[in-house]
């Protein structure tokens, strides 16, 4: 065993992976890794020992991955070589992984810990078998725990529809890199992607573009319908699939802005016929905002959120709340009367009115509301609302200082729709600058704050986001996400003092071989 002293306390003693007998390229970097001499030979003769119910999902995931990667089907029997053991001494989400010559031990105190231990084991698995047919897993002793509790990725499935199979593969990768949350952006101006029993129009109309349809005139030249939605059965399937892999799915129903698909699908309920307001949002839509003055708006919110709350087991629902532009609601007699009735002076108070209503619906269903940072405008929402800060690091700091729990998703460091290099052919937007891999890696949330400042308690974690205005194919999806996802994984998980760019780049090469084998069309590194 070669131990390298990095000047850390003895509890943080760390062995650099470079000292391992075989290259160990774990991402994210674990808190403590000791490389041992020798290998465990994994073959079709290996057996997984039956374990506590907390390990059931992780075991199913291990079996699925080994079948896919190695064509090996490991049985589950009373005794075996691979042991999932409950260890109540370990903190939530942390794990101990010990690979010995004859046995593998995965210890955790909860389902999340077992999944993360499995992720490390899967990363130790070589890409090719030895000539004798077995896979040589290097012997290691790993003690590991996450730095940030919430480690998420948002995918915009509204601007373009991503088929369920694409999302499943993506969830496999989220789990492999120890994320624990998938934020599912299901509705927007360009599409409504979730089946709602109360309003079949939302998916009959709102999920499709072209030919000759009202939703997106610029796509009316298309000769075939283009788009899609997720049925409730498919959503349940994805929730269960993600749950095995330790991933919670948080649904987002964006309101009161970004609602064009809903408005065009349900004009009888949602359209204010006398609204002459002139506005144009960030994406130039002039007709995408729910009206606070229509009873239909509240019926719609109640019915949709009730079905969403029943479908998703997560304790949270995200209600959007972003990008309502100036000018909204200003030239509507109904909105003016509504403002006078409630004594509101600013149009933004109307947004708060709608969001507070949504919050009541969710609270009655036992759910906590989440929203983009603009939800604190115009009188704002309940202080229990979780705020996703996206415009800047500074805005996140302010929300946390105001007492909100925050998820940091600053565009400058976490928006994977941003270009990632300097060539003019580079795909992506640059309204928040360029976002090369090393910039993602450099992100430190709330770094300006004194480490002892109690405001840190309001930082729940970090999220990356793929907005998909321009992401319509698997190739583009992969190109924008990978390998930046791996840099973000380490930002989310690893202890800050263990994060070193050169070391990460070296380990990344090992992971890129895996992505190649898995057919991921990642952006080549410079
Ligand atoms: C801002 S971030 C948006 C999205 C866009 C994205 C493009 C946020 C809450 N809203 O609607 O797709 O910028 O980068």
UniProtKB/TrEMBL annotation:
Residues 149-495 form the Glycoside hydrolase family 20 catalytic domain. The chain holds residues 116 to 641 of 641 of the full protein. The keyword Hydrolase applies. Belongs to the glycosyl hydrolase 20 family. GO terms for cellular component: membrane. This is beta-N-acetylhexosaminidase. It is an enzyme of class 3 (hydrolase). GO terms for molecular function: beta-N-acetylhexosaminidase activity; polysaccharide binding. Keywords: Glycosidase, Hydrolase. Residues 24-145 form the Beta-hexosaminidase bacterial type N-terminal domain. It catalyses: Hydrolysis of terminal non-reducing N-acetyl-D-hexosamine residues in N-acetyl-beta-D-hexosaminides. It comes from the Bacteria. Its EC number is 3.2.1.52. One of its GO terms (biological process) is carbohydrate metabolic process. The active site is at residue 323.
């Amino acid at each position: 065993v070669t131990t390298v002293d990095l000047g850390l306390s003895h509890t943080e003693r760390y062995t650099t992976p470079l000292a391992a007998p075989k290259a160990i390229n774990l991402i994210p970097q674990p808190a403590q890794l000791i490389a041992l001499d020798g290998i465990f030979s994994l073959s079709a003769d290996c057996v997984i020992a039956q374990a506590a119910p907390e390990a059931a999902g992780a075991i199913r995931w291990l079996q699925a991955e080994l079948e896919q990667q190695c064509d090996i089907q490991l049985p589950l029997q009373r005794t075996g070589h691979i042991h999932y053991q409950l260890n109540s001494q370990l903190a939530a989400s942390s794990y101990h992984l010990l690979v010995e010559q004859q046995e593998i031990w995965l210890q955790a105190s909860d389902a999340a810990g077992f999944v993360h231990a499995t992720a490390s084991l899967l990363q130790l698995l070589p890409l090719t078998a030895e000539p004798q047919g077995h896979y040589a897993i290097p012997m290691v002793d790993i003690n590991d725990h996450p730095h940030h509790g919430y480690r998420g990725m948002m995918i915009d499935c509204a601007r373009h529809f991503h088929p369920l199979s694409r999302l499943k593969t993506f969830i496999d990768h989220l789990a492999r890199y120890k994320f624990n949350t998938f934020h599912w952006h299901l509705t927007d101006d360009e599409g409504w992607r979730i089946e709602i029993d109360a309003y079949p129009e939302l998916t009959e109309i709102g999920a499709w573009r072209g030919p000759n349809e009202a939703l997106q005139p610029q796509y009316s030249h298309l000769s075939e319908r283009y788009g899609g939605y997720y049925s409730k059965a498919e959503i349940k399937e994805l929730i269960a699939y993600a749950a095995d892999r330790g991933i919670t799915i948080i649904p987002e129903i964006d309101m009161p802005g970004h609602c064009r698909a809903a408005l065009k699908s349900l004009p009888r309920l949602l359209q204010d016929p006398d609204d002459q307001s002139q506005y144009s949002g960030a994406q130039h839509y002039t007709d995408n905002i729910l009206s606070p003055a229509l009873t239909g708006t509240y019926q719609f919110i109640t019915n949709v959120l009730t079905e969403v709350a029943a479908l998703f087991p997560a304790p949270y629902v995200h209600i959007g709340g972003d990008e309502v532009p100036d000018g909204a609601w200003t030239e509507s007699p109904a909105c003016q009367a509504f403002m006078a009735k409630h004594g509101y002076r600013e149009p933004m108070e109307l947004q708060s009115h709608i969001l507070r209503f949504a919050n009541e619906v969710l609270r009655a269903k036992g759910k906590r509301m989440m929203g983009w940072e603009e939800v604190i405008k115009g009188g704002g929402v309940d202080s229990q609302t979780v705020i996703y800060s996206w415009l800047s690091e500074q805005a996140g700091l302010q929300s946390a200082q105001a007492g909100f729990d925050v998820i940091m998703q600053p565009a400058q460091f976490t928006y994977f729709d941003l270009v990632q290099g300097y060539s003019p052919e580079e795909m992506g937007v640059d309204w928040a600058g360029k976002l090369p891999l090393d910039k993602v890696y450099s992100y430190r949330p709330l770094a300006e704050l004194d480490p002892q400042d109690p405001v840190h308690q309001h930082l729940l974690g970090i999220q990356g986001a793929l907005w998909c205005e321009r992401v319509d194919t698997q190739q583009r999806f992969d190109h924008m996400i990978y390998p930046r996802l791996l840099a973000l994984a380490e930002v989310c998980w690893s202890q800050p003092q263990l994060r070193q760019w050169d070391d990460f780049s070296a380990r990344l090469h090992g992971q890129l071989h895996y992505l190649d084998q898995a057919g991921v069309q990642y952006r080549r590194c410079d």
